[in-house]
Structures are given as structure tokens and as C-alpha cells.
Design goal:
Layout: E1 31-35, E2 40-45, E3 50-55, E4 58-65, E5 67-71, E6 74-81, E7 84-96, E8 103-112, E9 115-123
Antiparallel strand pairs: 1-2, 1-9, 2-3, 3-4, 5-6, 6-7, 7-8, 8-9
Length: 126
């Protein structure tokens, strides 16, 4: 997955979170992030406090409790799975799936137990 720079004069997708958004805000967007090699996908649900991490080895997924932290350039979902830390970061900006060529409005980074994987994200259908 690549995150090319936005063409000059273009506008990027709105930042997934903002300084005025709080974890208790019911209007928070929900996301689906995904990446290739290794294949993974993460659905963000609830008020941004539940992640479901799916891999080919675990197609039913693992539910993880997360804390949502917003900043000027995006949103992070952070937490612990036993003794392992994790973080999903979603930031505004064009992202292209390197296998399908599909374009997404957000770039994503999934870090689990120190292993980092790049991907793309989109708003989940409501």
C-alpha cells in the first residue's frame, strides 16, 4: 500500500478525528483498515473503543479494547493484548492498495507487538 503525496492544489480527505472530537462523541466515524503481505484487516466499532483484527489465520477475528486518541493529523486506537501493545493509526490522505489498485481516502498503520504494517482505510458503511 502506498500513500502518494496529494497533487498540488488538491484537497485531502478530512482528518478522521479532530481536536473537538472526544471518545464519547456518538458521531465518530467508524473505519475499516486493511493491508497486504501480510494480509490483515481491522474494523473499528463502538465509539472507537473496539477493534476486530482479522487475518487469514484467524478469519473470525480477535476483539481488542482500545483507547481512541485524536490529533491534528488523524486518530490512533491504542491498547494492550495481554503483554503485547498495539496501535492502529488512521490519517487523512490518498492511499492506493498495491494489489488491487483501489484508492482509499485514508492511510493506515497497524503496529502489534512492535511489528508495523502499512495499509489503507475507509469509512465503514453505516
Amino acid at each position: 500500500m502506498t500513500k502518494p503525496a496529494a497533487p498540488e492544489g488538491s484537497t485531502q480527505a478530512p482528518i478522521p478525528g479532530s481536536a473537538t472530537t472526544t471518545p464519547s462523541d456518538k458521531s465518530l466515524p467508524q473505519f475499516i483498515a486493511r493491508g497486504n503481505e501480510p494480509f490483515w484487516s481491522i474494523s473499528v466499532s463502538g465509539n472507537g473503543n473496539t477493534l476486530t483484527w482479522i487475518t487469514p489465520e484467524n478469519p473470525k477475528g480477535t476483539r481488542l479494547s482500545a483507547q481512541q486518541v485524536t490529533s491534528g493529523d488523524g486518530v490512533r486506537y491504542i491498547g494492550r493484548d495481554g503483554d503485547k501493545t498495539f496501535m492502529l493509526e488512521v490519517v487523512g490522505g490518498a492511499c492506493t492498495d498495491t494489489m488491487s489498485g483501489h484508492s482509499f481516502e485514508f492511510a493506515a498503520t497497524w503496529v502489534y507487538a512492535g511489528d508495523s504494517n502499512a495499509g489503507c482505510a475507509e469509512r465503514a458503511a453505516k
